[in-house]
Design brief:
- 37% of the residues lie in helices and 24% in strands.
- By secondary structure, the protein is an alpha+beta fold.
- It has a single domain, classed as Glutamine Phosphoribosylpyrophosphate, subunit 1, domain 1 (4-Layer Sandwich).
- The strands form two sheets. It has an eight-stranded mixed β-sheet. A four-stranded antiparallel β-sheet has the order 7-8-9-10, covered by helices on one side.
- A hairpin with a 3-residue loop joins strand 7 (214-216) and strand 8 (220-226).
- Helix 2 (42-54) runs antiparallel to helix 3 (99-109).
- The longest helix is centred in the N-terminal third of the chain and has 23 residues, at 15-37.
- The radius of gyration is 17 Å and the shape is globular.
- It starts with a strand and ends with a strand.
- The protein binds glycine.
- Glycine is lined by residues 175, 193, 195-196, 205-207, 213, 225-228.
Amino acid sequence: MYTILVHGGAGSIPKEKSEAHLEGVKESVRAGAEVLKSGGSAMDAVETAVKIMEDNPIFNSGTGSVLTFEGEVEMDAAIAYGPNFDFGAVAGVKNIRHPISLARLVMEKTDHVLLAGQGANDFAKLMGFEYHNPITQQRKEQWEKYRQEFMNGNYKDWPKLRELFKAHPEFLHGTVGAVALDSHGETAAATSTGGVFLKLLGRVGDTPIPGAGTYATIEGAASSTGLGEGMMRVLLTKTALDFVRDGLDAQHAAEATINYLDNFVGTDAGIIIVDRNGNVGIHHNTPSMTWAYLKNDMEEIVCGI
Ligand code: GLY
């Protein structure tokens, strides 16, 4: 028995881009499922699935990440291994192609859980990662437009940024994630992101924080997407897996988690969960979130937006 489920980010996906987003998540699931089908691990499957999305410029992770206020890209990523709560993460890493693979190396090759900023980049160099510029022309043009709008506003502080997010929900879409259960009964989760447009340099979101954007336990695995500032405050993926531990199946846990967030924080968000029985949970409070999954007994990938 195996299951792999991925998301391509919550937010507002323009109609004309829907097909490309759906193709992107399906390609990711296909690659992850190949790993699981041949008896591979959930860890390898989620890393493979996320790498595919990091290479797809339509998503906000790896190549195609959104730009900070200063026009740079700083990426966060994390990977979690359910059987023993292992966790590896990087925050604010620059100019590499696959932050998710660096996060995995933090877990496997160091005694740490999270490396940030220059330290993460130094570690990437040590691990043989080559220089890669993740800034695409399209993101640069979006950045110029949004920054202009922001500067034209009479802003004093970041609450104005929040208003800008409301007017342009497309600011948020794009973080990618994958969760899997493998044929050995092991779970894993992986998430990768460029964060949010116009973030301050050094801002870290929910993605690399254990239990916020990424988490896995023996009961399941979860990955979230949306505005990290809210999700960090309720430890969204930990909350989700607490619901699973307490007896909810993955879908009910996903719904309960987003309701919980809505009741206490009210942030735009989406979550995907796989539980130890291979059930999937998908829920979001944003206009859209791209997702796709495949289980061992299914002929075709199921996807949605
Ligand atoms: N959820 C991605 C971020 O806020 O950075």
